[in-house]
């Protein structure tokens, strides 16, 4: 091919590719809506989620849990390549660039106001979309391990619970893992070695959970795994596999650190009767973790 000519397969050499700490591309490949104000700041609605009803109700596809937002506030859809927004008779109206609308096509930079939240429409490859994607990665990641953080876990849990309120038949389990006697590791080997243990533990857990599970570091030496579509029995075998993998792992830390065998205690709970909100599930898993600690550590309870 002559120099300077292009084929359809060639990518634009000027395309800016942004990657996160794990090397995954976070560049949005197509147009999207990004929350720029209010609840769920930084989150986005992508074309594969369309059509999407935005609202406060549990049957909304993109939930904004604010009293200023109607249960089914507006809908975003795509029609022959164009994005549209239409109001669904919301109490506080849907505004685009501060003007109330019934139905309207979206152009790059348009701002949709839904109650006290605001979403911005960004065309494919816009510099702002790339910048916001990178920023959002920072907001949902734990700096030390690169895993998702507590904030992202809670958002994921809220989404899962919203889905379950519509179809109650699908199980959901949550495990909380806590490193045993981690203070002793820090005291004996130093804080930097402690940090390295947490990083290596994160990689180990990452390799051991399923792709559909949501793994997060939710505290100092505390991790969580959200397991959609898993009841207690399958979740328990996954946790047992994690516990045993940690116990058998050799952590590569400075010679002479003397950290010995690292173990984790795991508390597990399934979403069920008597639970109304995310904190109920967390509390149940935490109670099982406490029991696992009290009864000897390096075990799975729940
Ligand atoms: N190196 C390191 N240490 C941390 C980090 N976050 C919390 N810690 C330490 O983790 C330790 C947790 O100690 P404890 O809560 O007493 O629990 P533990 O020693 O693990 O004992 P059990 O949980 O009862 O088995 C504390 O010493 C914290 O300072 C971190 O990011 N890096």
Explain what you see.
The structure is a single chain. This protein is an alpha+beta fold. The protein folds into 2 domains: 18-138, Sandwich (Tumour Suppressor Smad4), CATH 2.60.200.20; 150-301, Reverse transcriptase/Diguanylate cyclase domain (Alpha-Beta Plaits). The protein is 30% helix and 25% strand. The protein contains 6 helices and 17 strands. The protein has helices spanning 127-140, 150-166, 182-189, 191-208, 232-248, 278-294, and strands at residues 32-37, 44-45, 52-55, 62-63, 74-79, 82-87, 94-96, 99-100, 103-105, 111-114, 117-122, 148-149, 172-179, 214-219, 222-228, 264-270, 300-301. The strands form 3 sheets. Strands 2-1-11-10-7-8 form a 6-stranded antiparallel beta sheet. Strands 12-14-15-13-16-17 form a 6-stranded mixed beta sheet, with helices on both faces. Strand 16, helix 6 and strand 17 (300-301) form a beta-alpha-beta unit. Helix 3 (182-189) packs across helix 4. Guanosine-5'-triphosphate is lined by residues 144, 178-184, 186, 191, 194-195, 198, 220-221, 293, 297.
